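hey
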């Protein structure tokens, strides 16, 4: 009869056990590697208390470090298995496209940058909500289904930021920023006739990229909506300007990093992002013709009305 040799689990454990002092070094490195993505996930799902100097994020990160350190010390005899498991999780996340090495790197960059360079939040200032001027004419002028508008927007996305790698979740926003760059770099402000509010259609404004603030807002909104973005028009005293939906505060962190470090590095240098937070907590970023980058300064702050194009 063939005897099956008993498996010596204790021997296997000792063989994979890391000797001192290298086990402490490996535990510390593994702790940091685990803490970073875990901190990002926890941070994105907690309400931001906005403590002074972002101390809340520092406290959260240190707390995660301590907890992981305690757990890893209990598992120090199988530390190599922990390393292999950690790498397998990230490889699996990278392979299926949910959350892997690139996502950890992008999220970490965004959070660290935002901690050192907070965007400037602009609360919604509403004096008295008024009917949106020329609402029906403006809606009809936003011809986002017109092939000319769609083709122009596609041209802009092929011309600007086409080679930006990563940030797949923000591809549409990046492409909308390409549209913004193309329109604002070519826009020529021309006043309406005296005593008359002339509303140009989006396709009309494409001919010469000229007109006043409502013409700019119309062609911007139409172009953005034609490629999947969500624009809205803001009415202030004597002015109309477009905004784009960014999403949550977590999305704002990513977009802030993209604008400042990837897309509009020179234009946004040492400048803040300007945006509005609506009643549902969603972020809307300024795309006015006076802005050199998305989130540029507001020309007028008081909001009298808003026209959202869902």
């Amino acid at each position: 009869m063939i005897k099956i040799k008993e498996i010596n689990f204790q021997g296997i454990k000792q063989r994979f056990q890391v000797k001192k002092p290298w086990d402490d070094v490996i535990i510390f490195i593994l702790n940091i590697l685990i803490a970073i993505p875990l901190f990002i996930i926890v941070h994105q799902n907690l309400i931001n208390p906005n403590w002074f100097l972002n101390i809340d994020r520092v406290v959260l990160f240190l707390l995660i470090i301590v907890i992981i350190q305690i757990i890893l010390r209990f598992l120090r005899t199988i530390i190599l298995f922990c390393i292999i498991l950690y790498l397998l999780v990230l490889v699996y996340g990278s392979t299926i496209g949910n959350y892997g090495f690139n996502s950890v790197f992008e999220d970490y960059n965004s959070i660290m940058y935002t901690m050192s360079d907070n965007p400037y939040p602009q609360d919604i200032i509403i004096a008295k909500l008024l009917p949106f001027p020329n609402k029906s004419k403006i809606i009809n002028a936003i011809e986002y289904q017109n092939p000319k508008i769609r083709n122009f927007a596609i041209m802009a996305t092929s011309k600007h930021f086409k080679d930006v790698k990563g940030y797949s979740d923000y591809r549409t926003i990046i492409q909308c920023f390409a549209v913004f760059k193309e329109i604002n770099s070519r826009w020529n402000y021309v006043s309406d006739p005296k005593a008359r509010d002339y509303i140009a259609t989006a396709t009309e404004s494409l001919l010469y990229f000229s007109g006043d603030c409502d013409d700019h807002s119309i062609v911007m909104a139409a172009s953005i909506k034609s490629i999947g973005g969500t624009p809205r028009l803001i009415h202030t005293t004597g002015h109309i300007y477009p905004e784009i939906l960014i999403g949550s505060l977590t999305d704002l962190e990513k977009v802030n990093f993209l604008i400042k470090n990837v897309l509009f590095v020179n234009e946004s240098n040492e400048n803040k992002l300007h945006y509005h937070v609506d009643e549902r907590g969603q972020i809307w970023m300024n795309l006015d013709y006076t802005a050199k980058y998305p989130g540029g300064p507001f020309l007028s702050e008081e909001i009298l009305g808003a026209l959202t194009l869902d």
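The chain is about 50% helix and 15% strand. The chain has two domains: 9-116, 122-308.
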